[in-house]
Design a protein that fits this description.
This protein is an alpha+beta fold. It has 2 domains: 128 residues, Ribosomal Protein S5, domain 2 (2-Layer Sandwich), CATH 3.30.230; 65 residues, Alpha-Beta Plaits (2-Layer Sandwich), CATH 3.30.70.240. It is built from 5 helices and 11 strands. The strands form 3 sheets. The chain has a 5-stranded antiparallel beta sheet, sandwiched between helices. It has a 4-stranded antiparallel beta sheet with strand order 9-10-8-11, covered by helices on one side. It has a two-stranded antiparallel sheet with strand order 1-7. Strand 2 and strand 3 form a beta hairpin.
């Protein structure tokens, strides 16, 4: 079981590494899906159409279960892997790093390439703000109006975020709650006689 927090970045940032005329421009983005990643890579390829390589690595999901590396024509293991290594060593997820290489005419060799991609990726990470996020669940609470005050008191005391609220014969509220507190809070609502809770 993983912790209910994970580290990502707050906003896109850039990094740069130069070696023997070659320029390695690194871009780091906070991302949530592979669709988003494809769009970012496509727009960078358009912006840097004269560049020789657009190598990248990403990791998704709070449990870090989805990842991919791409050398984009560089020798196997010299680009995507060192970029991904920086994501791993900084314990980040929901991030994409793309390193755009402009070839300077001099071959750098395998170790030179690994160093260049690693350094550019690290520079981008160092220029970004790393933040910690909590993994949250949503709970739907249904209650009759006479219990509204008690329900709202629990929501307020536990600093729950109300996402949606609707009224018909009963009141329905959807709240966001930190994963580690879900069972405790559901327990508090269960003490109220006519309140129904479910994960949504």
């Amino acid at each position: 079981m993983f912790d209910d927090t994970y580290k990502t970045i707050s906003a896109p940032a850039e990094g740069l590494y130069k070696e023997k005329g070659s320029k390695f421009i690194a871009y780091i983005y906070p991302v949530k899906s592979e669709v988003e990643i494809k769009e970012i890579i496509a727009s960078l390829k358009k912006e840097h159409h004269a560049a020789r390589h657009h190598c990248y690595a990403y990791r998704l999901m709070p449990d870090k279960s989805v990842y991919r590396i791409n050398d984009d024509g560089e020798p196997n293991g010299t680009a995507g892997k060192p970029i991904y290594g920086q994501i791993q060593s900084n314990d980040l997820t929901n991030v994409l790093i793309v390193v755009v290489r402009y070839f300077g005419g001099t071959l750098l060799g395998v170790s030179g390439l690994i160093k260049a991609y690693k350094s550019a990726a690290l520079d981008a990470i160092n220029n970004s703000e790393i933040i910690e996020k909590t993994i949250n669940e949503n709970i739907e609470i249904t209650c009759p109006y006479e219990q509204l005050n008690e329900v709202m008191r629990i929501i307020k005391q536990n600093k729950l975020t109300i996402i949606k609220q609707q009224s018909d014969s009963n009141l329905k509220v959807i709240v966001e709650i930190r994963k580690s507190k879900v069972e405790i809070v559901i327990g508090l609502f269960k003490n109220l006689e006519k309140v129904i809770t479910r994960l949504v």
